[in-house]
Write a structure and sequence with these properties.
- The protein is of the alpha+beta class.
- Helices cover 28% and strands 30% of the residues.
- It is built from 9 helices and 20 strands.
- Strands 8, 9, 10, 11, 12, 13, 14, 15, 16, 17, 18 and 19 form a 12-stranded antiparallel sheet that branches. Strands 2-1-3-6 form a 4-stranded parallel sheet, with helices on both faces.
- Strand 8 and strand 9 form a beta hairpin.
- Helix 2 (48-60) packs across helix 3 (72-86).
- It starts with 13 loop residues before the first strand and ends in a 6-residue tail after the last strand.
């Protein structure tokens, strides 16, 4: 029996793209969705190649809106596939009508809505998506009925061709790596529940990341060079600080435990790590810090809420930067662990995305 009352659905088709491997994409949710979403509009992926094929179908069938579900990694995966497939010439369908092939640059990306079906849910939180299974179904119905139809422009980062709303080198990526290692170590055991969701993150941070950083010897050093247009340092109040930093100039050189960039305010679990990200459209917020673990812990509530950071936290608005460490550092892009790097380039993606805003009605 469904927990959600059936609602009249508009004729506009919306594709629902889900990660079949996500814990929240349960058999119960699948049965629920089958009551409200036509089967031809429901897509499930189990690997990147599945997602690429689904993106191809979505563009060929001319969907104007898609909803992704499975977490930030699922959102990033589908969005990258949509971007890449949109660059291929294709014919677009409008019902039974087959239109002439369009050049790659003329293919419009659909708007993307993000359902709250992941662990961290940074993008879903940013757009006001609902929690729990009933809320997810309601969000789908609201989108399909036209109750939620407004969107906001989301600029994305790019690293080695991968587009994402945030990325980072250092302690933030170490947390992710430690979480993934914890999940693998307890998978299939009686302690598997410890390695999932918020509890898994808490256990990995307390049990691995913080002790490792507290006991580590020496602080990594970094050099950050502006490779884009004029960059701007941001003061602790969010206002511009000092003069513009020109192309080729060094933004910062010195000790650094984390170099992270984002075009949305938050990481997962509502952590407002980039509180000034939305103040400069077309540029990302870069945050650098070498503050100690005790200082992080003392200021954790303020940092989590995006408040005034303690001394030793530096923020910038940038278009493109080269980040060069003196040792290998863990890297994450869009919440996915990407191994270790000494040097990366973060830059703005070639074009923005239209993101469905669940807070806006009509």
């Amino acid at each position: 029996m469904s927990n959600v009352e059936r609602l009249p659905i508009r004729s506009e088709k919306i594709a629902v793209l889900l990660n079949a491997n996500a814990r929240s994409v349960s058999d119960g949710l699948k049965r629920e969705l089958e009551n409200f979403v036509p089967p031809e509009d429901l897509y499930y992926s189990r690997c990147f190649e599945d997602a690429r094929g689904i993106a191809r179908q979505v563009l060929d069938r001319g969907y104007r809106t898609v909803l992704t579900g499975g977490g930030d990694g699922t959102f990033v995966g589908y969005v990258n596939c949509l971007f890449e497939e949109s660059m291929q010439p294709r014919s677009i369908s409008r019902g039974a009508l087959k239109l002439a092939p369009l050049p790659a640059h003329a293919v419009r990306l659909p708007r993307v809505g993000v359902l709250k079906l992941g662990t961290g849910n940074a993008v879903a939180d940013f757009t006001g998506a609902s929690g729990n299974r009933v809320g997810v179904v309601e969000d789908i119905l609201r989108a399909r009925s036209g109750e939620v139809s407004r969107s906001r422009t989301l600029h994305l980062l790019s690293h080695e061709g991968k587009r994402a709303p945030f990325a980072g080198l250092g302690i933030d990526a170490a947390v992710l790596n430690d979480y993934e290692n914890l999940k693998r170590s307890v998978k299939g055991s009686k302690l598997q529940f410890v390695g999932s969701g918020g509890l898994g993150y808490f256990c990995s941070v307390v049990g691995k990341t913080i002790p490792a950083y507290a006991l580590s010897r020496g602080v990594p050093n970094v050099e950050v060079i502006n490779l884009g247009g004029p960059a701007q340092q941001i003061g602790p109040d969010g206002r511009p600080l000092g003069r513009d930093i020109s192309h080729g100039e060094i933004l910062y050189k010195g000790p650094c435990k984390m170099a992270a960039a984002g075009t949305v305010p938050n990481y997962g679990f509502g952590f407002q790590i980039f509180p000034w990200a939305m103040r400069a459209p077309g540029r990302f917020q870069l945050r650098l810090t070498a503050i100690s673990v005790p200082t992080i812990l003392r200021n954790l509530r303020t940092l989590w809420r995006g408040g005034t950071p303690p001394g030793g936290v530096l923020d910038f608005h940038c278009e493109k930067v080269l980040i060069r460490f003196d040792r290998d550092m863990p890297l994450q892009v869009g919440g996915d662990a990407e191994g270790y790097r000494r040097e990366v380039v973060f830059e703005m993606s070639e074009r923005p995305l239209e993101l469905l805003d669940f807070r806006a009605r009509g």
